[in-house]
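Students often ask why we bother encoding 3D structure as a string. The short answer is that it lets us treat folding as translation between two languages. Here is a chain of 337 residues written in the first language.
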Amino acid sequence: MHEIRLASRPTGWPTASNFEIAEVETPVPGDGQVLIRNIYMSVDPYMRGRMNDTKSYVAPFEVGAPLDGAAVGEVVASNAANVPVGSVVAHGLGWREFAVADAKRVRVVDPAQSLSAYLGLLGMTGLTAYVGLLDIAQFSEGDTVFVSGAAGAVGSVAGQIAKLKGAKRVVGSAGSAEKASYLIDELGFDAAFNYKDAPVREQLKAAAPDGIDVYFDNVGGDHLEAAIASANKFARFALCGAIAQYNETTPPAAPRNLALAIGKELNLRGFIVGNHNNRMPDFLAEVGGWLREGRISARETVVEGLANAPEAFLGVLRGDNTGKMVVKVGDEPAVRS
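And here it is in the second language, the structure alphabet:
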């Protein structure tokens, strides 16, 4: 079997040379463990931080060791009665063709659904959007919502949830005119703009002339500064990501107007979705229902082959994807019930 390893730590933007592919023996499951043949794996912006040897909310990747991350696959050998062979499971050992995991660390999923959806809309990506908007930003019906990185995996779901929950207006930023049109025409955003066309502060003010009540931040930097400028009194910010600065080697200049948060009495709160797994049942019930009813959608950008996973990851950092970026590692099961 093959696995992708971290070959070296990047300075600034990662390159293909920071990764290596290795051939190793297929592992054998022990007591209470299962062997999983990976089908899809996730590549996510947060993984860039794990390439650095710095303390954070999750341990850094180790040089010379395989990377890890969300994946979904088929159990092909099992020493756990509650997760038999043939089960389709979500787990945390992507970046390899086969993985051994403790049965208690995997989640059996419904194979009748789109399997890749368990890495996106029905997985941690969707849960991030759900928790960030409803719990962290405390969205209320009638709010005006701004989502940065809105054509990405999390942002696209957050904006749709806001619309479904009765937002007065939902505005999104994206990195191209095509993506901005996608937000309006396919996802139902009220307004969207290409952040490369003009200063974000100017475009947001035009798109939300009455200000914003909620900001779902995936970008940081000038987007966060613009949101502070447009924020209404008592606006709530969910700080989910800061992709604008993940590859910077110097401190970011923005936001330069943070003092406005005092007079406006803003609530800026960061969050880690892993601390909110208790919300998964509510999330799956509500978002799964919307999906079955055709009221919510999630586009995916699918890259074929484990060897292409590093380039898929670099593509996420560049913003090449629309919706969730996933890598197809292996074939789907021949029979799905």
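Translate back mentally: The chain is about 25% helix and 25% strand. Keep this in mind for the problem set.
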